[in-house]
Design goal:
This protein is 33% helix and 33% strand. The chain is α+β, with helices and mostly antiparallel strands. The chain has a nine-stranded mixed sheet with strand order 7-8-6-5-4-3-2-1-9, with helices on both faces. Strand 4 and strand 5 form a beta hairpin. The longest helix has 17 residues. It is globular, with a radius of gyration of 16 Å.
Length: 206
């Protein structure tokens, strides 16, 4: 179960260039547009293609329910100077006691700026600072080197390879698996410590 801090819909995690916040109904159109790009389906294997606005609306509703229940944490990635415009999603999913899985994607127009790494580092820091999780895990498709670099920049260590059943592909595809333990996270130097906050301009987005 996620801590109460994560289950509040005005939660905002700040990084140098980004806000991570709960998704809202105002994000539906942008979510459908970005997630509807075939390359996002190809790289994640989770988001179906085509991806309709109705699918996006259901996802936002589900995400808000998961967040409030504390079973998962799904956050919209937005730029600080344009906090109403979603550019991707990031989240944690509890997998077993003491462990959660990290997942993320960015819309293609926002690739190549380091946003995925910045968002992932912020959420990883918050996870270890405010939960009792012992470790985070992640899987990436073998054809997705950019996502692999994000995990490596966050300190994740490779643990092997596997075949993962991915809904968007109606079958299993090869993936590389990664893990980051609390002890290793503690040993890493040079990360900015994020501070969850509730700035007044953001509360209307909840």
């Amino acid at each position: 179960m996620m801590p109460d801090l994560f289950r509040d819909d005005v939660l905002t995690l700040e990084t140098p260039r980004l806000f991570l916040r709960w998704p809202t109904v105002e994000d539906v159109a942008q979510l459908a547009r970005l997630a509807g790009d075939r390359v996002i389906s190809d790289m994640t294997g989770i988001i179906p293609h085509p991806y309709s606005q109705d699918m996006a609306a259901r996802y936002v509703g589900d995400a808000r329910q998961w967040n409030s229940e504390g079973s998962k944490l799904k956050l919209a990635i937005v730029e600080r100077h344009e906090p109403e415009l979603l550019i991707g999603m990031i989240g944690l999913r509890l997998t077993e006691p003491g462990e959660a899985s990290l997942g993320y994607w960015l819309g293609k127009p926002h690739w190549g700026r380091g946003y995925a790494t910045e968002a992932a580092q912020g959420l990883v820091d918050m996870a270890f600072m405010f939960t009792r999780l012992d470790r985070l895990v992640a899987s990436v498709r073998v054809v997705n080197p950019a996502s692999r670099r994000v995990l490596e920049c966050c300190g994740f260590q490779p643990t092997g390879s596997d075949f993962l059943s991915l809904p968007a592909w109606n079958g299993a595809v090869p993936v590389e698996t990664y893990r980051l333990t609390r002890n290793l996270w503690r040993s890493l130097k040079g990360w900015r410590t994020p501070v969850p906050s509730r700035p007044a301009p953001m509360t209307a987005l909840g």
